[in-house]
Amino acid sequence: MSSLTSGALAELMRKNAGVNVDPDAFADRPDTPFEDYGLDSLGLLGIVATLENHYGHPMPQDAERCKTPREFLALVNDTLLKSGA
Question: pTM here?
Answer without folding.
Answer: 0.91
